[in-house]
Design brief:
- The complex is a heterodimer of chains A (682) and B (182).
- Chain A is an alpha/beta fold and 682 residues long.
- The longest helix of chain A is centred in the C-terminal third of the chain and has 21 residues, at 578-598.
- Helix content of chain A is 27%, strand content 22%.
- In chain A, strand 22, helix 13 and strand 23 (478-481) form a beta-alpha-beta unit.
- Chain A is built from 17 helices and 34 strands.
- By secondary structure, chain B is of the alpha/beta class.
- Chain B has a four-stranded parallel beta sheet with strand order 2-1-3-4, sandwiched between helices.
- Chain B is elongated.
- The two termini of chain B are 30 Å apart.
- Classes of the chains: A alpha/beta (682), B alpha/beta (182).
């Protein structure tokens, strides 16, 4: 209780936040009430406390009125605590003599009765006044930042973030789950609205990554474990065996042509199953790294034999023509095992991307039932010159009378598949309108077919996007406004025979239409990755309800997470297009660079320590600490907290039976006084 | 009291999940009952059972503790530690005759602003039904009772020697108030 003995002089400020607070809380009344509380020297209400004049007011008052405590009632401390602590420090006080009251997010914005909201503001302010008297001067801890960085995910977001960091001279580890980097963008044919070829703009960046002296590229690898804290993360990366020595493979691909399988037989993931590959393959011609990979699930040499842990093992059943073809390069290694690499990094950028909505979840649209229903991603591969058909748009089902493959003469593109729908995903996937129109343009260009777009609303907010929509209207692409009811092969008229019929209510014309087409394209929406929850736990991040990673603040900290030193970029945070993704990746890299170049980070001094004279040496606290920060000193028979390891959760404090552990900023007396304070005003 | 009685709830929210969720509820302009007073802690693991007892003793009608979902704790497992303590605390509260609905532990993630709203509204409704806990008033009554007994005993002792041992043990309420004061 020594702090109450000194002459406590509190300055209290209640912020109007324009109308945000003042509309629901009588700020002048709150200031008047607080003026009458003990130790309060000064109580003011002010329009914008966070503004420069607001902060200067605090500094001036500290000096003029000789204040030694400051309380501001305004928005959430998660938003402006730092601002006001700095102002307090600028006024010549220790910044931890400041306390903040949240009367916006927790009060004025959530209540509808001005009297009640004002009463609540008074109660919360009273608590802060009681509490702040017990505040102590604290020193901020600093932690060194390891300059190396980790980027997780090698799509366009990860590539751009890694390149930015590497070009700034930082060492970067880029970890990608697939055998090649490139992500979804590598599969696209053209990009909207400029229609530049995706591969032409992406693959040079990919090879730059592969060749960059500052980037360690680990493809076919996954992050297995993350320990540590900002500036000092210890990461274990699992490197899956590709049965090829990365050092010795030169990417000649002789092994692929000489494989005992003369013809590609197995579903090609990169081409969305539209093409075939061999057991030894390279995902696509410009894959980075240019290293082949052997799929043990289909390679004859493994013969699908499983080891005790379920992983495929070598059975040596094959002639191994690939090994012969490789010759003295000797790059094929059937004995390769999973390898764990341990690295230390200071910052991590998570750019794990998205998956597309599984269109089979809407059976009415016929995907998986009618062969000529495609997903948009399949069409991307189909119109792609390096795709399975060399860019020729041919139907999966149906042949011309002469036996040649059939080209579609009419195509229906259904927007919002798995988006803006309470039955599937309620969010707008943001990119589908634009990519649907891009595909409409490309399909028309490739086939000269009649193309129909079925849309709910056209969402084209972006540079040149609306212009692209207008261009398509000029090109004669049809737009029908209405959510499609179903896709069926049940013909009602002779024209509908042998076609897929799209049944839709044309909400502009005001009647239900049946449009027969040869090909249906489903513009499936974007979803979080299937393992987003695991990844989130791995990096100690939060997710929104829909499963995308949660940013620290939607406006002011869009690439930060709640864990310091871990940033997010790209569609893992929410659906976004390539320009936005690249911008965000750059922002994430910049945020990481701030930490790296500063070299240290200031940490909240909210760590715990032990009062030696009170500690009975019961050891209750020792097993509670998840960071093993508490050690038991056998000679002194006392517990001891290693401040460097303590992260300030306070779990040990709440459990100590003798009350001998103190958590800075959350001391028992501070919280008890807060409890007393919130209940003091009825 | 002329004003309609409203329960007073003291809430302990962890910084990373539930406090942030309450911020989200604010940013989303959700509307909920105004009788909750939030105290921010870094982790629900910091909640000392004494905080709960102290809040009730000082006139709270209910206490709400909010933490991250199991497996999501920012500090790995602080919420589990809270859960263990909470189980013990619940027993103690039951023995003290305090209704179970008055002290509540909820896992609310940073994205669940709507859950903050739902929980606070539901709890307020339940407490409205239960009525005031009024521990401070009860303590006063119990204190008066004890004083009266003391006087009675003193009077008896002065009059007819000490036949008061049985009477001293009678008021169980007196020992209860001691427990709650601890």
């Amino acid at each position: 209780m020594q702090s109450t003995k000194e002459n406590t002089r509190i300055g209290f400020y209640v912020c109007h936040c324009g109308h945000n607070i003042a509309a629901m809380v009588d700020c002048a009344d709150v200031a008047k009430y607080v003026k009458g509380l003990p130790n309060v020297v000064l109580s003011r209400d002010y329009k914008y406390m966070c503004s420069d004049p607001g902060q200067e007011l605090i500094q001036k008052d500290i000096r003029e009125y000789n204040l030694n405590r400051v309380v501001v009632a305004s928005c959430s401390p998660l938003l402006h605590e730092h601002t006001f602590r700095s102002a307090t420090a600028a006024g010549g006080l220790n910044p931890y003599y400041f306390h903040m009251v949240n009367i916006r997010e927790h009060d004025s914005w959530v209540h509808t009765d001005r009297g009640e909201a004002t009463a609540k503001a008074k109660a919360l302010a009273h608590a802060a006044i009681d509490r702040v008297a017990f505040h102590k001067a604290l020193e901020t801890k600093t932690v060194k930042i390891n300059p190396d960085a980790l980027v997780v995910g090698g799509g366009i977001a990860g590539i751009h973030a890694a390149m930015t960091l590497a070009n700034a001279g930082k060492k970067v580890y880029l970890v990608e789950r697939e055998p090649s980097i490139g992500g979804h963008m590598a599969k696209f044919d053209k990009t909207f609205p400029t229609l530049d070829c995706a591969a032409c703009i992406l693959t040079p960046k990919m090879s730059e990554v592969g060749a960059h002296p500052n980037i360690t590229l680990w493809s076919y690898s996954e992050v297995a474990q993350v320990d540590g804290y900002v500036g000092n993360y210890k990461v274990r990366v699992k490197r899956k065996p590709r049965y090829i020595s990365e050092e010795r493979c030169i990417g000649c691909m002789d092994c692929i042509s000489q494989c005992v399988f003369k013809e590609p037989k197995f579903e090609d993931e990169f081409n969305e199953g539209l093409g075939k590959r061999k057991p030894v393959y390279i995902p696509f011609p410009q894959a980075t790294p240019q290293i082949v990979v052997i799929d043990p699930n289909v390679c004859l040499n493994f013969k699908r034999a499983k080891g005790p842990d379920g992983t495929p093992i070598v059975s040596d059943k094959c002639k191994k023509t690939c090994v012969e073809a490789c010759g003295d390069k000797n790059a094929i290694d059937f004995t390769q095992k999973e390898e764990i690499k341990e690295i230390e990094v200071g910052t991590i950028i998570v750019a794990t991307g998205f998956k597309t909505f599984d269109s089979k979840r809407i059976p009415g649209y016929g995907y998986g039932i009618y062969k000529n229903v495609y997903t948009a991603l399949e069409i991307e591969r189909l119109v792609n010159a390096s795709g399975p058909t060399g860019g020729e748009v041919i139907l999966r089902e149906g042949k011309n009378p002469d036996g040649s493959p059939k080209h579609p003469k009419s195509i229906g593109i259904i927007h919002c598949v798995g988006s803006r729908d309470k039955k599937t995903n309620i969010w707008c996937s943001r990119v589908c309108c634009m990519y649907s129109m891009k595909l409409a343009h490309l399909l028309k260009e490739h086939t000269d077919a009649e193309v129909y777009n079925f849309y709910i609303d056209i969402r084209a907010p972006g540079k040149g996007y609306e212009e692209f929509y207008n261009k398509l209207l000029d090109e004669g692409v049809h737009f029908i406004r209405g959510r499609v009811g179903e896709v069926t092969d049940w013909a009602m008229t002779p024209e509908e025979e042998g076609k897929l019929v799209i049944r839709v209510e044309d909400t502009l014309a005001g009647y239900v239409r049946r449009i027969p087409v040869d090909m249906v394209v489903l513009s499936s929406g974007l979803e979080p990755q299937a393992d987003a929850q695991d990844v989130r736990r791995l990096f100690n991040m939060s997710c929104g309800t829909e499963g995308f990673f949660l940013e620290r603040h939607p406006k002011l900290a869009p690439v930060n997470t709640f864990t310091d030193g871990i940033f997010i970029a790209g569609a893992c945070q929410g659906p976004r297009d390539i320009p936005d993704t690249v911008a965000q990746a750059g922002a994430a890299a910049a945020e990481a660079l701030v930490l790296i170049d500063k070299g240290y980070v200031e940490q909240e001094p909210n760590t715990a320590f032990i009062l030696d004279e009170e500690c009975s040496g019961c050891k209750s606290c020792v097993p509670l600490c998840p960071y093993s920060a508490i050690l038991y000193d056998e000679t002194r028979k006392k517990a001891h907290i290693n401040e460097a390891l303590c992260k300030g959760c306070g779990t040990c404090v709440g459990a100590c039976p003798s009350g001998s552990i103190v958590q800075n900023l959350f001391e028992d007396e501070q919280i008890f006084s807060e409890i007393q304070g919130v209940l003091a005003y009825d | 009291m002329t004003k309609e009685w409203r329960p007073r709830i003291v809430a302990f929210f962890c910084n990373w999940c539930t406090y942030t969720a309450a911020d989200l509820a604010g940013v989303s302009r959700m509307k909920y009952a105004s009788n909750v007073r939030v105290i921010r802690l870094m982790c629900s693991g910091r909640v000392d059972p004494q905080f709960v007892l102290d809040a009730l003793t000082r006139g709270a009608d209910g206490v709400l503790i909010g933490g991250c979902h199991p497996g999501d704790c920012h500090y790995a497992e602080g919420n589990y530690k809270m859960l263990r303590r909470f189980q013990l605390l619940k027993r103690l509260l039951r023995d003290m005759g305090i209704e179970e609905e008055r002290v509540r532990l909820e896992w609310i993630s940073a994205a669940e602003g709507d859950k903050v709203k739902a929980v606070i509204n539901e709890m307020t409704e339940q407490l409205m039904k239960l009525g005031p806990l009024g521990l401070p008033q009860r303590f006063e009554e119990w204190d008066k009772e004890v004083t009266r007994l003391e006087e009675e005993i003193r009077g008896d002792a002065a009059g007819a020697g000490c036949a008061c041992a049985a009477k001293l043990q009678k008021p169980a309420a007196a020992s209860k108030s001691e427990v709650a004061h601890v």
